[in-house]
Amino acid sequence: MVLVDALRAFSGIVKAKSEADIDGSVFKLHYRATATLLFCFCLLATCNSLIGEPIRCAHGDSPYLADDVVNTYCWIHTTFTIPRYLHGNGPSPYPGVGLATPTEEITRHAYYQWVPFMLVFQGVLFYVPHLLWKTWEGKTIQSITAGLSAPIIPSKDKKENLDLLREYLTVSFNSHNLYAFKFLFCEGLNLINVALQMLLLDKFLGGAFLTYGMDVLNFTELDQSQRTDPMIEVFPRVTKCSFHMFGPSGSVETHDLMCILALNVINEKIFVFLWFWFVLLIILSFISFLYRALLFCVPAVRKGLLLRRSNLKFKSTLNTLGSYLLYGDYFILYLVSKNVDIMAFTELLEDLAAESRGARNPSAGFPEMVPLQAVGEDEKPGTNFPSKEEVV
């Protein structure tokens, strides 16, 4: 079931783009790149468990022990290592494996049964902020740019659709702040989510994930005789298992088994990659959030960004618009610029500026925003705007 669910989710994420672009590059790293990576890792871990032999335990020449019984028992009841033998403090042929006393401290390893489930669960969590924003956005940008997003648009249709878009933006100016704040909330949710994912994996791996990547880097710089491979410590390839059974006389016998966890060869690489990826994602998400805060606080930065996304020859056009553009107005113009060609967006800004210089008085306010309907499958692009009578 995990494999089927992961395939369905993966196919939904990597499908061809058919909708409006309503977010930024860092946002896409969360719900596209990261979620896709996690679902791919889930498939890899699942295939490794189903196709290969994830665990194999050696039990000597005992005629009472069957390989499949021992392997299944140790897989279900977990295996363990002895920390004392990880650091060369006793005779041991393998790290973490050696003679244990009844009071010996041991480390049990049960995570390997849950790795595919954890990865698919994380992939779903990374998709949640995008799903929330997509629901709140309500296909607004797709609706208002539907007649301008095609590569080739007849001049008559382009002019008509631009006029409708201009009229819609004119009557709805100063009413998009809540729309923009919902996006900021989802971006903040992305940052919180990836930080909580780090803590979740740290708990999942017994407190070894937060420093896992740095431990791996430091390991390569230590002297050969003094270092302990952190990947072997967190994802041991050789472990111990205690198997209890009744002997010929009815007494309980305990068999000390050595188990090889071949799947940890894959797991150690998956999680070291995830550590570096999550750290990079936290840094980029934090920078992106600070950038949004800068745009919110400094109008000049907003005007500069719109100038770069257009082909305006005169900065006075943006200065005119900037006199009454709130953050929400800038944000919806920014999303419009991502979904129409640069010439159409430039013409739109010039028309908005010309209208504001003529009939509009910025201090007088603007009419309330007219409700917008999403584009249906049978509707012609550009026909879902408010009528001219409603606008005026």
UniProtKB/TrEMBL annotation:
InterPro entries: Innexin. The keyword Nucleus does not apply. GO terms for cellular component: gap junction; plasma membrane. It is found in: Cell junction, Gap junction; Cell membrane. Its main location: other. PROSITE patterns: PANNEXIN. Keywords: Cell junction, Cell membrane, Gap junction, Ion channel, Ion transport, Membrane, Transmembrane, Transmembrane helix, Transport. One of its GO terms (molecular function) is gap junction channel activity. One of its GO terms (biological process) is monoatomic ion transmembrane transport. It holds the Pfam family Innexin. It is a multi-pass membrane protein. The chain crosses the membrane at residues 270-295, 316-336. Belongs to the pannexin family. Structural component of the gap junctions. This is Innexin. It comes from Hyalella azteca.
